[in-house]
Amino acid sequence: MKLKGKKQESSNSHEGSRGKMTLLLALVALIAAFGSSFQYGYNVSVINSPAPYMQDFYNQTYINRTHKPMDGAFMTLLWSLTVSMYPLGGFFGSLIVGPLVNNCGRKGTLLINNIFSIAAAILMGTSELAKTFEVIIISRFIMGIFAGLASNVVPMFLGEIAPRNLRGAIGVVPQLFISVGILVAQILGLNSILGNAEGWPVLLGLTGIPSLIQLLVLPFFPESPRYLLIQKGNEEQARKALQKLRGRPDVDEEIEEMRQEDRSEKEEGQFTVLSLFTFRGLRWQLISIIVMMMGQQLSGVNAVFYYADKIFRSAGVKEESVQYVTVSIGAINVVMTLLAVFIVESLGRRILLLTGFGLCCVSCAVLTLALNLQPTVSWMSYISIVSVIVYIIGHAIGASPIPFVLITEMFLQSSRPAAFMVGGSVHWLCNFTVGLVFLYMEAGLGPYCFLIFCAICLASIVYIFFIVPETKNKTFMEINKIMAKRNKVEIREDKEELKDFHTVSGGQAEKKSTSSSEM
Known about the structure:
Blueprint (H helix, E strand, L loop, with lengths): L1 H15 L6 H23 L5 H16 L5 H24 L1 H8 L1 H20 L1 H4 L3 H28 L5 H22 L11 H6 L2 H10 L7 H7 L3 H12 L5 H14 L7 H6 L4 H16 L2 H14 L4 H29 L1 H25 L6 H20 L2 H9 L5 H30 L3 H19 L8 H11 L5 E3 L2 E3 L8 H11 L1
Antiparallel strand pairs: 1-2
């Protein structure tokens, strides 16, 4: 009878923790993602279409100053800086995630971050009027800092406020808005709209509008309850925030789960990046996010988008129509990411990651073959187009959105900010590296460069299959317990509470774990 009662209680506990999508929760997710993630995507794509007109502006400004045209090599350097300053800024933005979210909160950091975006938007929008191209380059770096913060803080914030049965779906929303931002930039960048000599300053300056909306609206929404309880120690505010987000007064179970997590981490304190790298109890979590972030960025997504125009031209698409075909690829990206929002809770994270990287791997292999045979077999150009579309689908449902979801889920409150700093830094460094070396790879290897991306996708699949667990519908503590076994860390259950008594500096538990593994 006693055992039956315990089982019944456990069943009720799982049922009671299932949350519904309340209006407030949906609004917080939309405002946070629109004000931040949307702009990340928008600024990835915004300078692609008006590039010739912006380069004309660079050259004309130089002529007005020196009375001679700009050297071709100098123009290449300036444009490379314009493109690469964005991911470089993203790297620096990732480095300040931890201090900001720990001291200012998740919501507070998003509000502060809007200052970067609005300042950059004003500078870029007025650059032509001021007749200075240096301001655009500096603004791209500032915008990169904004994107580096946004790409890490929004998934962390949404992952912490979501009930566990909706955590995956809400965690994919930032990636959905990144895709929407890319698509909107592609549409507004059409020559017939703002991608022309007169419209490009407006196109660059529009990025400040979502930040302005977020700055006005987000203060009225609650802070992350986990941050309020675990890091600020204010249970009353955490309870009120949770009651608003869940739309019901009874939130005792989630509060108890947070208390339990708080108790298990009391000895550890806040992790720094250095302590995260030296702590045995989080070894496989850390390796996993590094591998997944490298796989996400080094799998060739930017290269495929770059090659898409060439592929469509070789298939007979007219020059004036290539822009519209590129927009259609952006639309497919949005639709498939939206699909991921709806299927991530039913299929799980692991399946989407394996399927996504699998589709990317096969697409890269087929694309290499098709591009090489295109000169001799005419219909191979259509196989190339299909390969590009399948690749975009694979990346949209797995490789792009899921790694950020897993950073939130695989780390507890004390180590999560440091984990996002590591994951974000890897993300932006790899992004910067691909942007820097891809043109040289393409010049040296031609279509065979996609075999490198194919190998990276395959390596990611093998790692995920053997190491990364399914985290669907599990509490943060349950996931921590699964990963503890991977790390060979000793776990004790005491009065139905999970307690990891490892500390950052090692200690007795560390020694005990080591000796047991030696036996």
